[in-house]
Every structure is written in C-alpha cells, then in structure tokens.
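[[Per-residue structure]]
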Amino acid sequence: MTQIAPTVQKLFFSPALIVGAAIAIRVVYLIHFFQGQPPGGHHSFPLYEVVCVAKSVAEGHGFSSPFYVPSGPTAMVTPLYTYLLAGIFKLFGTLSLQSSVVIRLIDVFLSALTCLPIIALGRKLFSAGSAALAGWIWAALPSSIFYSVAWIWDTSLSVLILTLALWATYMAAERRSLKSWVGLGLLWGVGTLVNSALLPVFPGCLAFAVYRARRQGMSWIKPTAATLLVFCATLTPWIIRNQAVFSGKVFLRSNFGLELWLGNNPDVPVSCACWLHPTSDAQERARYLQLGEADYVQEKQRQALQFIEGHPSDTLRHVYHRFMETWTGFSDSFADIWATRLLSLRATLVLNYSLTILAFAGLLLAYRTLGRRALPLLNLMAVFPVVYYVCHTDTRYRQPIEPIIAMLAAYALLRSANTIHSRFDFSRTRGETGVTPQR
C-alpha cells in the first residue's frame, strides 16, 4: 500500500495522463457518435453558417453565402475557424465523411489540449492539487466532451484560446519581457477572429495586467502600447475587408442585430424564437436575400430595440430565463425539471447546479485568498455571458469560460475537503487525548 499511494498520486498529478485521458474519452465518444449516424456522405454535416461559408470558400466563391443559397459576401461568422474548415474541405472533400472525421478529431485534440493551460493556471493561482483536479474535471466534463465531437463550430478552439489568453494575462502582468505583452495582444486578437464573443473580456484583462505591472514598479506604457498595437494589427485586415465590402456598415461581425431580434420579438416564448433564424425560416431567408446582409441585420436590430422599449417587463422576463439557462442549462426552475422524473434530466440538473454553485463558491474563496489577483476570473464570469443575457443563449455559448468554471469548482472542492479533514483530525485528536490542542 505504501508503494501504491505515491504511484497513484503521481498519476493524478500527471498533465500527460490527464490530456491522454481526455483524448481517449473523446475518441470513444466520437466512435459512438459516428456509429449512431445513418449511412450517407452528408449525414454528419449540419449546415451551420460556418459550414456553409467554408463550403463557399472551398468552392472558390469567396467568404459568402451563410444560408445554403448563394447570397453574396458575409460577415455572419469570423474568419479563422471558417478558413480552417475550408482548408480541410479542400484536402479531404467538401462535406465529405473524411472531412467530418478530420474536423472532429481536430476539435477533440483542441478540447483535450485545454487541460494544459487549465493546469498551468491552477498551479499559478491555487495549488498543484487544485490544478490537477480541474484538469480531470475538464477531461471528463460531459459538455466539453459533447461539444468537441457533436458540433462543427469554433467552440473547442475558442475554449483553448480564451484559457491561454487568461494564463498569458497573468504571465504578462508579472514579467518585464516585452515579448509577453506582444504575445498577449496576439492571443486576444486571434481569439477575437475565432470568436468575437471573447472581445468584451479583453479590456478588463488588459487593465488588470497594467494594474499589476504598475504595482510591481514595472514600466507599463510601452508594454501596453505593444499589446494594443499587435491586437489592432491582428484585427485590421478583417475590419478593412468588412468596411469595404459592406460600405462601412459592418465592423467586426454582422450578426448582432439578428441575434438580438431572435431573443427580443413578440414570438419569443421564454428565451428565444430561434426557429425564425434565416437558416430555418424560408420567409426570413427571402427577406435576407432581398435586402442584403447589412440592411437585413440593421432592420432586425431596429425591430428588436422597438420591442425592448415597448415591452420592458417581457424583456426582463426573457433576460431572467436566459440567465438561468446560462448557469443551469435550463430556463425552467429546478422544481419543474425535477418533476419530469426523467433520470437523465435529473442527473444533468444536479451536475449543472453543482458545478455552478461550486464555481461561484470557488470564485468567492479565490477573492478571499488572492485579493485583486482574482479580478480576471471575476471579469470572465461576470462580463462574458452578458451579451447572451441580452440576445439569447444556449449551453454551448458558455463553453469558452467552462475551463475557468471547472478550475474554480475544483478549488472549492479541495478547500472544502481540506477544511473537513482538518476539523476531523482536530476532533479525533481531542477525543483521544481529552485535551484541546493549543493553537
């Protein structure tokens, strides 16, 4: 037994084993996923906007046509993951089974690789034990497994880049190397071109890095300028393209007005009228083709703002349900879901609520332990979901901050376990000796 314990402990702390386990779990699920699909070449390619645009690029029609039919240039999706898909289509066939397998294997690898920055960040902020536990939670987390396999979207890449960017934020704040700040700007710029929803988190993280640098007596003006310069340079080609193509009407991405309208219109039952999206609704698709992308999205934004202004109570009700769905996976209450008596739903409900409660407990403990060094964690948890409260949400949308949720939950679990263990030891020592130990 004395030889087994150190071996088990060593395996538990091994980043290579954690990543390997994460890959193995996802590959097993990937095999199961394909076995459950019907035969046919296009069976595993739902035609999401990113897939449609990648198909258009691969076929030589440019960055265009997000809704099945030729419709001209688009900025509905950001470019980096889209061009990755287009490159795979070129090599392995557009919408082919081989392309589907390659894309999902890449996403599986990216998702598993996220264990490494989770562990690095956990060790830096908390402890080796918290870091390892966070890595194992991410490796086995059902949502991280599901979305890395079942969805062809930028999700796994966004998760990895945001976790790396947060780690780079802490590193840059404590280093005098200009390269760290340049790398910080590059990571946030690349992350924005993968998923523009990451952008609102960047100002708070940069402000923290500047604050920490100043507190440590480091020069901050030149590093900050370097970060912003690289960040802007990374985004500039895409912004110039959009400004030129859409006559100054689109800056980074064109879909905000549409997403705002899908969550704020008279047909919204609880959180979103997603069936009205041009992907699903022929009438809306025809309107999109009639007006063009920029004018169609602006029209939807005007309609959404009119609804919000005229229906404040409905808007607040929708925001509440989207908040609940973001943090629990369900827009309905715990009691309503539990009353369904479905074992799978109950298990998901317990897991989602437990993870969220532990994560917020971990955030509170982190603030008590780290003080202002916990501010980037608070920034992610508070700022990232706001756009989804306003527009509409889905469990997939929370994935980019899920590694931080896993890390905070692991920290709360370990702190709780240590507290219970210390109290148990204290009580046992007192019972055996009959004397209260001196403190």
User: Anything to note?
Assistant: Residues 4-417 form one domain.
